[in-house]
């Protein structure tokens, strides 16, 4: 059980990150929880290398660079972030007439005075390999998310996929893994062209192997993975390759999951909120792509505005003496400015 926070933020996408910043600016304690192993939500999981043109202050910014800036802004107040944890439950209590909550993940419990759901299009989970016995290989060399690259030190790695993540890991595991074989079912890639070129150059230099029109058929081993059978989709030829680890990078699937069962008003898969970003349950706020109200726009810019509204109202709910109106950051002592 963690210590009690003013605001527990579910989702560390752009909305959750901006909410963490705003909580810090308002002097509220908070923590962020995300199912992914990196912050940034859709920007990190789906389009890190795409340019965004409609975020205030940036004529053009790469999604991954925007996330970097938002994370830097968010974590200046040292809010803890708990990654790789899916929120699966919520306990509701009341303390001295005020709502109180415990946000439950697969591994921990987070008591909180209020909850801000910034869950976007739902919890992202890695798309699994379509193999019958896939479950038995988790913990034995099969990793569909990489939290600690050093575990691949000296290992022979089979990377499966043709998107940004597969290509990024082909580059980032150079000098860590003993050998990398990367396979993809076609010769078109969804990854950034510069990274594709980099990997093709590594393959041409004999530093790894890249095979297109090859798929994974089976994993073999005992206590750990020892080999894999791959096959050519063109010639149907099969080949058994000795590997220690298999890393599928096949994209993500997303689902609202258990949040839909918390008694919140849901409309077409989105959480209904008021103008103050309050849900139908006092103390639970929502912001960003996960919300709906008349005139809703699902954009990074609107998610940030909604995060600010939600946090200011949460702060006021916790302490009615704290005004909803935050004042101007340009005047604040917390940023080294002179209060007016
Ligand atoms: C290809 C593409 C291009 C885009 N381009 C633009 C653009 O140019 N401009 C623009 O404004 N918008 C763009 N968007 C939309 C933009 O990305 C979204 O509006 C934005 O990401 C919403 O942010 P969010 O934080 O609300 O949600 P998300 O980014 O979806 O983040 C939500 C986070 O919550 C986590 N989460 C959800 N449920 C749980 C749970 N139960 N437990 C733990 N964690 C959970 C998820 O893992 C995720 O990390 C684009 C979207 C796509 C797919």
List the helices and strands and how they pair.
Elements lengths: L4 E6 L3 H12 L4 E5 L6 H5 L5 E2 L8 E2 H12 L6 E3 L3 E9 L2 E8 L3 E9 L5 E4 L29 E5 L3 H9 L6 E6 L8 H12 L4 E4 L1 E8 L3 E8 L5 E5 L2 E4 L3 E4 L10 E2 L2 E3 L11 E3 L4 E2 L7 H19 L22
Parallel strand pairs: 1-2, 1-8, 2-5, 8-20, 10-11, 10-16, 11-12, 19-21
Antiparallel strand pairs: 3-4, 6-7, 7-8, 9-17, 13-14, 14-15, 18-19
Pick out its properties.
340 residues; alpha/beta; 2 domains; seven-stranded mixed β-sheet; binds flavin-adenine dinucleotide
What does this structure look like?
- By secondary structure, the protein is α/β, with parallel strands linked by helices.
- The chain has two domains: 5-125 and 253-335, FAD/NAD(P)-binding domain; 128-250, FAD/NAD(P)-binding domain (3-Layer(bba) Sandwich).
- The chain is built from six helices and 21 strands.
- It has helices spanning 14-25, 41-45, 63-74, 164-172, 193-204, 300-318, and strands spanning 5-10, 30-34, 51-52, 61-62, 81-83, 87-95, 98-105, 109-117, 123-126, 156-160, 179-184, 209-212, 214-221, 225-232, 238-242, 245-248, 252-255, 266-267, 270-272, 284-286, 291-292.
- The strands form six sheets. Strands 1, 2, 5, 6, 7, 8 and 20 form a seven-stranded mixed beta sheet that branches. A four-stranded parallel beta sheet has the order 12-11-10-16, covered by helices on one side. The chain has a three-stranded antiparallel beta sheet with strand order 13-14-15, with no helix packed on it.
- Helix 4 packs across helix 5 (193-204).
- The longest helix has 19 residues, at 300-318.
- It starts with a strand and ends in a 22-residue tail after the last helix.
- Bound molecules: flavin-adenine dinucleotide (FAD).
- Residues 10-16, 33-36, 41-43, 46-47, 50, 52, 54, 86-87, 118-124, 257, 259, 288-289, 298-301, 303 line the site of flavin-adenine dinucleotide.
- Flavin-adenine dinucleotide is lined by residues 10-16, 33-36, 41-43, 46-47, 50, 52, 54, 86-87, 118-124, 257, 259, 288-289, 298-301, 303.
